[in-house]
Amino acid sequence: MWGFIGVSSIALAQVGPVLAHRTSPAKYKLLLAIIYFYIGLRLIVRGVCQSLGVIPIIP
Length: 59
Known about the structure:
The chain is mainly α and 59 residues long. It has a domain of 36 residues. The model has no long low-confidence stretch (mean pLDDT 82).
């Protein structure tokens, strides 16, 4: 599991700057907003599922 996290982190670290240079600032802001919204939603759902003792529905 830890190896997958490391490999995906390295890959995303390479993709991020390329996306930043190829997209307009408005589209990049929208993309970041969507990503942050997904991360926040995921954290909330995982917390609620953990408090209820069920498996999280969002991987």
